[in-house]
Structures are given as structure tokens and as C-alpha cells.
Amino acid sequence: MAVAISVSAGFAVFLAAHLALWRRQPSNDPRMGRLAALALLGVAITAAVHRALAGAEVVGVCAALWFETALLVGYFFVYAGLARSVSVTLLDCVRRAPGGRAPFGTLLEGYQRSSRFTDRISLMQRSGLVRVSGGAVSLTPRGAAFVRGIETLQRLAYATLQG
Amino acid sequence: MSPIVVVVLAKAWVLTMWECTVVLHIGYLRWTRASSAVGSAVVMALLAAGGIAGLWIGLAWAPGSLRASAVCLYLAGCLGYLELRSLLSRGYSLRILVDVFRGGGPVSCEELEVLYGNGQGLSGLLRRRLSTLARLRLVPFDGLHAGPLTPVGRAVERVASGMRRALRTELVG
Q1: Looking at the 3D structure of chain B, how many domains does it have?
Q2: Where are the alpha helices (DSSP H) in B59-150?
């Protein structure tokens, strides 16, 4: 029972803080770092509540923390899919189209007209991965190192980047 | 057995099962040259089911709550692995970075939009996404038109758009 209560409390605080912060400061930046900090807050609350309810019992605390971690990873999975997903945006565009059916050309035109592509570049610029000068985009040394790391990971995981 | 030893052994068991799952899945992809997305998904599901069974049997000596949480932790690891694979193969921003990297020098935003994904451009990106959505039976796509959304597609869209509205992240994707 202590495990269920502490996990619920930690996750509820995480979700409430996430919702409140994101609503107060809307942004198209996924802010994964900030979300990870909120997740740590949720984990700390789970540990504190479990300790208050059942004392410093190692097995119980670990069980609670593992459940909490699993819930948070599941939420990150949903959030990453939701926050930046091109597919979700396409589903939304199709639903809004007259008769619920959209010509491919219209979807493409809408996408090209929006700032979605340049927004991504601005976000990468803010992260220090690219620099934009005179309308031209180039990689920073950090960006180049990041791409090399990703290519190594792709070889290891046998994944082919399609985009 | 001391509680700390119980926890350490349980965690080691979770890690071992997760590593086996990941190594076997990558091994399968190498063996079949990643020829089938459905095959990959089926094998991953089978491996995960085997992992859960292995954990449940292997941790029979552990307290029930730790045993159940170990299974959840293992599943979280599998989700993390799938998320990483998705990023490595379908990352939109990552693709832009790789295109700039392979370009060798500064590239204009307009050129990048055209060059995106080995010269397929944004059109190629949207076609791939719509084809995947069609394969998942969320929306029919014949190459010229997309829609109308299937009942499952409508439900997915409603939940995702609702979450975007709640989090005020509508201008993304």
C-alpha cells in the first residue's frame, strides 16, 4: 500500500508541475532538460512519501522508485511522440480538411508555409549545435561531434536514418 | 539475505534481461538486414515477453512488490530502447543535422528544405510519415490524398491534440 501511495503522489506532483509550468510558459521547445528535472522531483517525492509511510525499508523504497521510474519513462515516451511528432500534426491537418480528406499537395504546402522547419533550426542554434549566419546554416564543433556520436550509435544499433 | 543484496541482485537480473533483449533484437536486425518493420516489431514483442517471463521466474525468491517493479523497470528499459531507435531512424532535427554535416559547408535553409533526407525534401518526409500512418491503419493514403481518419486514427488524434492543447504545445511537429 505504501508503494502505491508514494508512487501515485510522486507522479501526481510531477504531472501537476509539468502542466502548470508548460501552461504558464508556452513554447515550441520540448524542454526535455526541464522535464527531466521535474521527473527527479517526482522521484524525490516518491522516496520521501514512502519513507514517511513505511520507514527506511530498502526493498520497499526500491520497489516504489522502480515503479515511479517506469511510469516516468512511459510518460517521456508519450511526450516525445506528442510534443514534436510530425505524424500527429498530419493527423490533425487531415481531420481539419474539408470532408476529412486532404490532397497531399495541400498538406505539403501547409507544411512548407509554416515555420516548423526554421523553428527546428532555431532550436538547434539555441542548443549550440548549429550556427546561422547570413541565412546559411553550418555545424558548430559541438554539432559535428554530436553527429559523429549519433552515427556511431546508428552503426551499433543497426539503424538507418531516414528522417 | 540482506535487503541490499536482494535489491542489487534483482537490479542485476533486470539489467541482464534487458541487455539480452537489446542484443538479440539488434542481432535479428543484422541477420535479416532489417528487411521487415513488422518482423522487427514481432521479434521485439516476443523478446520482451520472454524477458518478462525470465524476470518473473528468475526473481521468484524476491518479495512480490520488488518482483513486479522489476518487470516494470525492464519494460521501461525496452521503451527507452525503442524510443532511441525511433530517434536514430526517424529523427527530423537529427536528419537536418546530418544533411548539414554531409553538405560539408554552410547551407541555406531553402537548400536544406530541398536536400532534406538525401534529396527527398519535405515531400519525402511527409510521404514517409503518411505511409507509416496508413500501415498502422490510422488514415488511408493513396499517394495523392490522405483521409478520412479511421476510428482509431480519430481517437489517437483526439488524445494527442488534447494533450498538445493542455500543454500549449500546438505549434510543433
Answers
A1: 2
A2: 64-90, 92-103, 109-119, 121-135
Q: What is the DSSP letter of B148?
A: P
ipTM, two decimals, is: 0.86
Per-residue model confidence as pLDDT tens digits over B114-152 = 888 777 888 888 999 999 999 999 999 999 999 899 999
Longest dimension (CA), chain B: 65
Inside any domain, residue B137: yes
* Selected residues 7-26 of chain B with any CB under 8 Å from a CB in chain A: 7, 10-11, 26
Among B38, B65, B89, residue at a domain's last position = B89
B168 torsion bin: left (phi>0), alpha (psi -120 to 50), beta (else) = left
Give the orientation angle of helix A86-96 with respect to helix A104-113, to 10 degrees. Answer: 120
* B133 found inside a domain: yes
Residues on chain B touching A26 (C-beta within 8 angstroms): 168-169
Co-location of B78 and B137 in the same domain: no
Is residue B172 included in any domain, yes or no? no
Asked whether B167 and A21 are in contact (CB, 8 A), the reply is no
Examine the domain organization and report whether B75 and B151 are in the same domain: no
Same domain, B21 and B58: yes
Q: Tell me, yes or no, whether B54 and B82 share the same domain.
A: yes
A16 lies within 8 A of chain B by CB: no
A149 touches chain B (CB under 8 A): no
Per-residue pLDDT of chain A (163 residues; tens, 9 = 90+): 889 999 999 999 999 999 999 999 888 788 889 999 999 999 999 999 999 998 888 999 999 999 999 999 999 988 988 777 889 999 999 999 999 999 999 999 988 888 888 888 888 999 999 999 888 899 999 999 999 999 999 999 998 887 6
Domain limits at B145?
A: 92-167
Rg (chain B; Cα; Å): 21
Chain B residue with Cα closest to A153: B88
Which of B89, B124, B144 is where one domain is finished?
B89
CB B138 within 8 A of CB B149: yes
Regarding whether B56 and B36 lie in a shared domain, the answer is yes
B173 is a domain residue:
no
